[in-house]
Amino acid sequence: MVDVEKSYESGAGKTWVLRRINLEIGDGDFITIMGPSGAGKSTLMGIIGMLDGAWKGDYYLLDNAVHKLDNRRRVELHKKYIGFVFQQYHLLDSLTVAENLDLPLSYRDIKKSERDSMVADVLDRFQIVGKKDLFPNQLSGGQQQLVAVARAVIGNPKLILADEPTGSLHSSQGKMIMDLLKGLNEAGTTIIQVTHNENWAAYGSRIIQLADGWIISGQTKVGAA
Prior knowledge:
The chain is of the alpha/beta class. It contains 7 helices and 11 strands.
């Protein structure tokens, strides 16, 4: 990312959300983004995940010049390479847990029998086999978060964006999710997470601190968990 900026026009003039973001993330990195509420963390994640196209600057993802692409091509890249864990889950209420997990796989050229096997494997890994035929409104917040994380990792994406991935989980579930993300990272997946939790932040190799839309530090962690 080079000089990425985002602003809104308001009655008082221009309100800046992100200012001059220059950020290089290597293949296989595990990055933690931290900062107070309103610092621009979720906005930055939305831009990296190509869910937001209203910004200025240059952004390259795997040699693709995202800033030059139309919306259709950005959506294609997102589906192909990115798994996103949202703060508010974003599960589809009309689909069962198993169907929610199958959805990102359905965008790819994967046979139904293989997709079913991948869904079964993830249900088992996340210990939610008994929930597979339930709908999101029949689950607790923590269970919905587990499903959301499972959906993000099921297709083995190159990049996982996790916005407060453990926000609704108790500590043992949170550790399970963080250990899973760490394992995926060690196998080669690039991970960018937003968290307020110092323990979970330590799983990353580098911490980016945001304040008022600016990057104020990019600390390197040594001896991460």
